[in-house]
Structures are given as structure tokens and as C-alpha cells.
Amino acid sequence: MQDNSFGSNIEPHQHQAGRYGTDPYEPELGTLPNGERDEEAVNKTGTTTIGISTEEGVVIATDMRASLGGRFVSNKNVQKVEQIHPTAALTLVGSVGGAQSFIRTLRSEVNLYEARRGEHMSMQALSTLAGNFARGGPFLAINPILGGVDDEGSHVYSIDPAGGVMKDDYTITGSGLTVAYGTLEDRYEPDMSIEEAQKAAGAGIKAAAERDTGSGNGIYVATVTGDGVDIADYELDELDV
């Protein structure tokens, strides 16, 4: 007679985990296998990123520093703003790998949209897509700024790690935001020109670099208009005049 008592004292969950060294019920929805990582060894931008919307277009400014664990400067010339659309740019904030993957994914989706429809994606659609990816994708902790221009005008959005999308006239993200906000609040004007926005953003990045260890080493500025995206680099003192 078959002995049905074999293994009866072992829960299936425990038996499989012990046999294979893994939990068969993992990973759970929304998690990644081998999700534990040495955060001290992950390159992070730390960073200060600023986005300002004007009548003429959008200005996005970032610093250039990447760090390990927030204590060691691992790179002094990181371009933290990238073009992802003919008239839009996105910043890198958080883990470098997650931010780079996020940008590549968005850029691919924008190209696919335009190839299928023969028209540019609107900023409202692009911001919604970015929020959906941030909420559901494996991009670690990111908090980018999206800035762009379409037929409706100039737009600046902050995208939080949970996928929240908030539009504003100007916004700041990153480890130096508290210092940069104080500077930008003093300089921002609703009718400022794009050149004035560049100077105000540069002043905010410079102020953050003075106090935030995750920010510094220079400034990248993306100027977004209906004609496209122009990205240039500056010394910390060049724009604050």
C-alpha cells in the first residue's frame, strides 16, 4: 500500500525553498529577483535639476556630479539632461542606471509613436507615459524633470518615484532642491525671457553646489523651443551674472 504520509509534515512552500534555495512564491508582483544590492556601490547622481517654463520655451539645468553612496565623487562630467523627443528633454535624477534605462525606454516609445502616427507626441501624452513607466517599471528611485514644447505652449513637469506627474511654471528635484528653491523663488518672474531663465537656473544650480555634496562640478543647460533641443555645458560661474 502506498504510504501517503511521506512529506506530510513538510509544507510545500518550505520544501521547495529548502530544495532549490529559492522561494517559489518570489518575486512578488512589483519586485525584481535579486533585488537586494549594495547601495553604497551604486552610482547616483545626487544632483540638482531645475526646469523653468517661459513663453519662448523651456530651460532645464542640472549639475554634473555623480557619487557613490553620496560620499565619494565618482564622476565630474555627467550629462544629466537628454533629449527624448524632437522638442522635449528629461533629466537624470537618482540611480544612474535606472535613469539611463528610463530615458532609453521613453525615447524608444516616442520614436515608435511617431513612426506609427506620423506626428509628434504631445507633452501631455509624453508626461502621462513617463508617469506610467515610473510607477510600473524597474527603474529604481528616480525623480526626473520633463520639459517640452508643443502646439499648446511650454510645459514643465516633475515626475516622482511613484509615478506622480505634476505640472508647474518651474520645479526643482534632487538632493540640492531646498537650497536651489530659495534662489529660484527670488529670481523667477512669470514673464522672464529664456535668457533670464537660463541665468536664474544657473544661479540655483550654483547655490546648491555650495552646500549640497551631491551637486557640483559644472552646469548642463537644455534650451527647448519649437525648433528643437539645444544642450550646452558651462562652468558654475558662467550663467550667474
UniProtKB/TrEMBL annotation:
The record's comment on protein family reads: Belongs to the peptidase T1B family.
Alphabetically sorted, this entry's keywords are: Autocatalytic cleavage, Cytoplasm, Hydrolase, Protease, Proteasome, Threonine protease, Zymogen
Q: Which reaction is catalysed here?
A: Cleavage of peptide bonds with very broad specificity
Q: Which HAMAP family match?
A: Proteasome_B_A
- Give the protein's biological function: Component of the proteasome core, a large protease complex with broad specificity involved in protein degradation.
Q: Which residues form the propeptide?
A: 1-46
Highest rank taxon of the organism: Archaea
> May I have one GO cellular component term?
cytoplasm
Q: Where in the cell is it found?
A: Cytoplasm
* Activity regulation summary: The formation of the proteasomal ATPase PAN-20S proteasome complex, via the docking of the C-termini of PAN into the intersubunit pockets in the alpha-rings, triggers opening of the gate for substrate entry. Interconversion between the open-gate and close-gate conformations leads to a dynamic regulation of the 20S proteasome proteolysis activity.
- GO biological process annotations for this chain's record? proteasomal protein catabolic process
- The gene designation is psmB
GO MF, one annotated term: threonine-type endopeptidase activity
Q: How does it assemble?
A: The 20S proteasome core is composed of 14 alpha and 14 beta subunits that assemble into four stacked heptameric rings, resulting in a barrel-shaped structure. The two inner rings, each composed of seven catalytic beta subunits, are sandwiched by two outer rings, each composed of seven alpha subunits. The catalytic chamber with the active sites is on the inside of the barrel. Has a gated structure, the ends of the cylinder being occluded by the N-termini of the alpha-subunits. Is capped at one or both ends by the proteasome regulatory ATPase, PAN.
Q: Which InterPro entries match?
A: Ntn_hydrolases_N, Pept_T1A_Psome_bsu_arc, Pept_T1A_subB, Proteasome_sua/b, Proteasome_suB-type
Q: What is the lineage of its organism?
A: Archaea, Methanobacteriati, Methanobacteriota, Stenosarchaea group, Halobacteria
Under which EC number(s) is this enzyme classified?
3.4.25.1
Which top EC class is named for this enzyme in its record? hydrolase
Q: Where is this region: Disordered?
A: 1-40
Q: Which residues form the active site?
A: 47
Q: What is this protein called?
A: Proteasome subunit beta
Read off the PANTHER family from this record: ATP-DEPENDENT PROTEASE SUBUNIT HSLV, METALLOPROTEASE TLDD
